[in-house]
Amino acid sequence: MIRKEKNMSLWMLAWPIFLEMLLQFLLGATDTLMVSHVSDDAVAVIGISTQLFNAVNILFAAVASGAGILVAQKLGARKEEEARIVSIMGLKICIGIGAALSVLLAFGAEPIANLLQLSEELQPLGKTYISIVGGGMVFMAAMVVLSTVIRNTGDTRSPMYAAIGINVIHVLMNYAFIHGVVGFPAWGLTGVALSTTISRIIGTIILVVIFRKSFQKRFSWTDIRIFDRPLFRETMKLSWPLGVGMSSWCFTQLVIFTFIAILGSKELTARTYMNTLESFCFLVGFSIAMAGQIRIAHLHGSGKDQVAYWSAYRVMWIGLSLVLVNTLLLYGFGNEALKLFTSDSEIVSLGVSLLAVNLLLQPAKMLNMALGNALNAVGETRFNMMVGLVSMWVIAVGLSYCLGIWMHWGLYGIYAAMILDELLRGVLVLFRWRAKKFIVKSDAKEELKNATMVF
């Protein structure tokens, strides 16, 4: 059913997203914590492999994001059947891409592990983990598009409930597969990979059941044949810049991780632990930004552009406040938190020294995320893409190498480059939003429509 306007408020959308993201964060932290009891080498493999999976996920995540934005806009304009068709096409495309990636990762794990610059002692673990988790990428593709579409209909609670069930199952399987309980062998890192893939299969089944009830007209298997060329063009118009931008971010992160791998396994492990802890910093802010994108897309679709414009600033200030509080909390308790993951004093010392730098990184990320998502919501995905391509490759990657490797600043130089990249992109999207280009375009379209009607 179509969501009522009262359910499209920022907080009503945000709190289920927050709980879902919190569960995902806890799942990632639990994974890292459980694997840390196996070895620090296993943690390093998960860290760099996650960057790889994030990069390949982009192909279907971009289609899902474009479809989700268009679904929200169509529902805002009270065009539910068009929204439903967009969601079905997005699902078919993502599953196709996910299936192709699954085959590639399952059978190409060895050369991929070599490309990631994994050290000789990490190679066997890397091949196993990449082949198993990568082989189930099609289920990740299905989960991404299904949860994205469901959220953009205004139903942010159902993906949250699904996440609860999936995470509980995953943690239980992790424990059983890693340590060998309830009759299972002690598989270690292989057990984590199997647990991840099985959880995603179960998650896909749950989300398909929810998706079938997301629109007034139920999904049926005959809908697989649906294809609407104009709506496909609209979806791709939003999706391809998102795909390029998101791919750019993930591949730059992957390149930066290879720089860190060059520094050494301790630096790579420390960065993996920091990734887990940093997720806590912007968890609430990210949820607010995602909720803001859904709300702004609905408002833009319904023609309420001035309300959408000011909503973005509310999202930005709320997000910045929450991120700053969370970052300060992490700064205060980070030492104890890191000791939960490892007893290696060198890794703990390195991680603690980066917590102060994190006070600058996370607010810059929040500024970029809040207003960047707002621009995506109103269809300005190309601007974000162009800004991201230049800044991420020149500043984030280029400076990371210069400061971190060439000038021997190590992780501190890499963090400095990431801060400058996030800050530059944040300032540029702020100026773009203040220009109100999307309102000017909407007014021009309305004037053209009125003139045509008069004629």
From TrEMBL:
Q: Which UniProt keywords apply?
A: Cell membrane, Membrane, Transmembrane, Transmembrane helix, Transport
Annotated PANTHER family: MULTIDRUG AND TOXIN EFFLUX PROTEIN MATE FAMILY, NA+ DRIVEN MULTIDRUG EFFLUX PUMP
Q: Where are the transmembrane segments?
A: 52-73, 85-109, 129-149, 161-178, 184-211, 238-264, 276-294, 315-334, 346-364, 385-406, 412-431
Q: What name is this protein filed under?
A: MATE family efflux transporter
Q: Which family does it belong to?
A: Belongs to the multi antimicrobial extrusion (MATE) (TC 2.A.66.1) family.
Q: How does it sit in the membrane?
A: Multi-pass membrane protein
Where in the cell is the protein located? Cell membrane
